[in-house]
Amino acid sequence: MATSNDIKKGMCIEFSNDIFKIIEFMHVKPGKGPAFVRTKMKSVTNGKVLDNTFSAGHKIDEVKVITRKFQYLYEDDNGFHFMNNDDFSQIYLDKNMIENSQFMKAGEEVTIILKDSDESPLSAEIPPTVYLEVIEADPGVKGNTATNALKNSIVETGARVMVPLFIEAGDKIKVNTEDGSYLERVK
């Protein structure tokens, strides 16, 4: 069993009947009173971010996790199916276990976090950026605006992305998967 003094970025702990990954932490030693550790934790099962303060020496339950690369295969009514590229075994994840899943396309590599003790899947992390083809884009009329204008577009996965006026159907674009924003046009 670890203590709050052992906390480091990326560590997974059991807290409030859930498993959280430490995103940020800061050891604080005020001039008056006991030391403490201020943390920002993200639930690996539902993605909620939680701020919490642990007193110095507080006992915490560390959870051993492993990460593996899986290839996204397809989606059905209940969730997503992935294949391990090493042994070709398949794994299934519920829709609520993956954030921003609307940017995943078949064949894309995804990192899945598994509990080390029984190798049960906890969550999946898609790459921070993806390359997608624009299937449909609203017409953009040049000269209607004085600033950088954006228009609606639909990419190959069915997600809506706001793009600059010069993007047309058939163009490939780079998309930030965290907020769904357009980054650049890809040749």
TrEMBL record:
Q: Which Pfam families match?
A: EFP, EFP_N, Elong-fact-P_C
Indicate the segments forming the Translation elongation factor P/YeiP central domain, all copies.
Answer: 67-122
Q: Which SMART domains match?
A: EFP, Elong-fact-P_C
Please describe what this protein does: Involved in peptide bond synthesis. Stimulates efficient translation and peptide-bond synthesis on native or reconstituted 70S ribosomes in vitro. Probably functions indirectly by altering the affinity of the ribosome for aminoacyl-tRNA, thus increasing their reactivity as acceptors for peptidyl transferase.
Question: Which family does the entry's similarity section mention?
Answer: Belongs to the elongation factor P family.
Instruction: Please give the PANTHER family that the UniProt record associates with this protein.
Output: ELONGATION FACTOR P, ELONGATION FACTOR P (EF-P) FAMILY PROTEIN
| Designated name of the protein | Elongation factor P
Q: Which organism is it from?
A: Kaistella gelatinilytica
From the UniProt record, report the name of the gene that encodes this protein: efp
